[in-house]
């Protein structure tokens, strides 16, 4: 029985992968590439290359939708032909009948996670770089302006306790890929601002693991806020972390990073960004974990709805798939927005749509039983 039901799921699933991928890639990139070929003289060969580089990104979204469509159509066909009635007449419950759909869903979940981690981020980034380079809209491989970095240290407070506090503030107005330009560095003691350093440029010295500042001035600040000393220099080494350089060299969007890269970026960003930016990135990281499991949600809901007698033919299944997908993605969008606003934790914001989907699927399954 399991082998027979599984064989009925394969063809609708492959049809769904093709159909949903074609729709998504047409809306997401094909029309834009055609416009660039005709209007911006983008070579056709490069447009084809970019198209295939972007394709994995859209297949990732098509896999869960295809799982839903396959279960709706396959179980709907079995119900329409009274095959499910015959199986239930042999004492097989609806819970047992949906097991092949859940196994397929788990397999697709693994494929979606692997594709979204190992292939899609890299190919999406390559497509973006290739397109910008071809159109001579050079996408710099680094952040060009406003490099901002905060360093926190354990400082002894006047009450004798040791607390984490801001110890250094690094700001560079520009970065040319090698040098930081127009810098200001503020150093704090446990009580007050202790020193201000301004310089025209600075470069990272990998041998000594320090920053070499050029053509600058050191302002020593007295406890009352006045300058207690001013020293100009042509070159001066400062023991500042390499983190500002790492931040400046990071130019990927969240959809161009896998989980490990996103976690690494979060670690860097946590030293320099505001809480809202950090919260947004944390939500996006959790969504990378949660998203593949929508395949199980869709598989469960599709199998239970399809198993209802006389419910689903191919056209009805496709329309019902669109409706369920719309509801799910609307809920996912709202949940993510609330997570980024701080109303939900990042984990809750990412997993709430799946939890809701599992609840609906479980309820439908209980009622069918």
Compute the number of helices.
11
C-alpha-based Rg, rounded: 28 Å
Q: For the report, how would you describe the main beta sheet?
A: 6 strands, antiparallel
**DSSP strand tally:** 6
Compressed to H and E, one letter per element, the order equals: HHHHHEEEEEEHHHHHH
Distance between the termini: 19 Å
Helix content: 55-70%
Low-confidence stretches: none
User: Strand order across the biggest sheet?
Assistant: 1-2-3-4-5-6
Overall shape: it is: elongated
Average pLDDT rating? 81
- Helix-strand category: alpha+beta
Q: What fraction of residues sit in β-strands?
A: 15-25%
Quick overview:
The protein is α+β, with helices and mostly antiparallel strands. It has helices at 2-39, 44-80, 83-89, 94-97, 99-134, 243-248, 259-269, 275-290, 294-306, 314-341, 346-368, and strands at 145-156, 162-175, 180-188, 193-205, 210-221, 227-238. It has eleven helices and six strands.
